[in-house]
């Protein structure tokens, strides 16, 4: 707050306007943060999206409705139907099922403990300083 005028003195209109504009730094901003743009997600499978569902999704190690939504740009209900369709065709297997969330993996996807192709089976990795 600025100084108050002493008794008998009044601020001029210019001084009042100047004080008001400098105190708040201009106009008040009503938005505090960034607004996330709404995604335009598909509500049905076209041929291209269906092919991606059959080819790309079973190769993933972790399959959830959220991941299918991100990869294929479809809405959640369509992603759940797609996962159910892949499960019926035995292209994926369910790891954990809950009322509101399914966690699946592709049948052909590498498990975390599996060896990569081309790795020799008879050799063990060395530990320490070359012992």
Describe the structure.
- By secondary structure, the chain is α+β, with helices and mostly antiparallel strands.
- The protein is built from four helices and two strands, in the order ααααββ.
- The protein has helices spanning 13-24, 47-55, 65-72, 76-88, and strands spanning 92-97, 102-106.
- Strand 1 and strand 2 form a beta hairpin.
- Helix 3 packs across helix 4 (76-88).
- The longest helix has 13 residues, at 76-88.
* Helix/sheet category: alpha+beta
End-to-end span in angstroms?
A: 75 Å
Sheet with the most strands: spatial strand order? 1-2
Note the total helix count.
Answer: 4
Could you give a short description of this structure?
The protein is of the alpha+beta class. The chain is 32% helix and 8% strand.
Secondary-structure blueprint:
Layout: H1 13-24, H2 47-55, H3 65-72, H4 76-88, E1 92-97, E2 102-106
Antiparallel strand pairs: 1-2
Which terms would index this structure?
elongated, alpha+beta, 131 residues, 4 helices
């Amino acid at each position: 707050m600025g100084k108050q005028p002493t008794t008998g003195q009044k601020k001029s209109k210019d001084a009042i306007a100047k004080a008001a504009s400098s105190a708040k730094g201009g106009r008040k901003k009503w938005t505090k943060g960034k607004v996330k743009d709404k995604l335009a997600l598909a509500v049905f499978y076209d041929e291209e999206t269906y092919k991606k569902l059959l080819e790309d999704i079973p190769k993933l190690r972790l399959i959830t409705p959220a991941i299918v939504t991100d990869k294929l740009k479809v809405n959640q209900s369509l992603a759940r139907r797609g996962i159910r369709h892949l499960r019926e065709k035995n292209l994926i297997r369910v790891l954990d099922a809950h009322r509101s969330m399914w966690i699946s993996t592709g049948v052909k996807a590498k498990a975390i403990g599996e060896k990569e192709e081309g790795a020799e089976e008879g050799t063990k990795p060395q530990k320490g300083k070359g012992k």
